[in-house]
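Below is how a single chain appears once it has passed through the pipeline. First comes the sequence as given, then the structure the pipeline wrote out for it. We keep one example in the README because the format questions we get most often are answered faster by looking than by reading.
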Amino acid sequence: MQTRPVIVIPIGDVAGIGPEIVAKALAQEELYRLCRPLAVGEGSCMERALDVTGSNLRLHVTRDAQDALFTPGTLDLVDLRNIRAEETPFGQVQESAGRAAYAFIERAVQLLQAGQADALATTTINKQALRKASVPYIGHTEILGGLTGTKDPMTMFQVRGLRVFFLSRHLSLRQAIDYIDEARVFAYIVRVEKALRRLGQENPRIAMAALNPHGGENGLFGREEMEHIQPAVERARAQGIRVSDPIGADSVFHLALQGQFDGVISLYHDQGHIATKMVDFERTISVTIGLPFLRTSVDHGTAFDIAGSGKASEVSMVEAIRLAAAYAPLYGRQAEAL
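Resulting structure:
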């Protein structure tokens, strides 16, 4: 049983639903058969979450993974004691909550770098709270890149057997189209192939989503496929990578979900987000690849409007922990450069 991977879970912004969904997720005995979950946060805020959710879990405060119990019915917590629940109301952007959330992530990374954990599963943080706390990063991916010295981590969404990679994410649609050129698309195909191998896919089959309707119809509806995307595909094939010609976005994700491909390259943010979340919104999990460790995450916000009500669903948190446990043995603690 000690071969079960240790999954470290920073509890996020304590004014939001993060601690609640961690409490609900770790009440599920099934997860303890898959991994050894270790939360990082603050004791009074975690106790408040247990109370809000009506949980019977016993909180066990530990210094690190070596002193954790990892038994069902017990929630192991590395307690930083850096914020107090009674001073942190639910549902509000607060500097103290942003500062504490960053510290939880920082400590989780330290545990991973010390070899005491095998993967990271993150819950929700608030970008405005981070800004108020003068944290010099906009979100989780940027924080993790900064803490580990990783220049450009990759994002993959997974839901069921559908894996989607994003050539670009947080760009306007106009900027995302301008971002597409042959060199950039080719380099990304190479990175996606390496990432899929890292996740256990041998000789992976990659689908390239088209940008324009019907793949541009030989220039009738746009020339990006002819001038940039198809040439990049041909270069990748010359290196032995199995990647498709551009396939219309109205069918490529369905084909991958049916098992015809191991991964899909989405050319911009909403193209892939819409596809995955229409399959199953709650079970769409974000995976960060290219860090020295694997990171999975829920893909929803802090839900300040329902924080403290006990209504928040833990489904996404459970799936994030489950996926981290599944991929951790394949990914390893030291990832190759992607």
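The first helix runs from residue 18 to 25.

See the next section for the split statistics.
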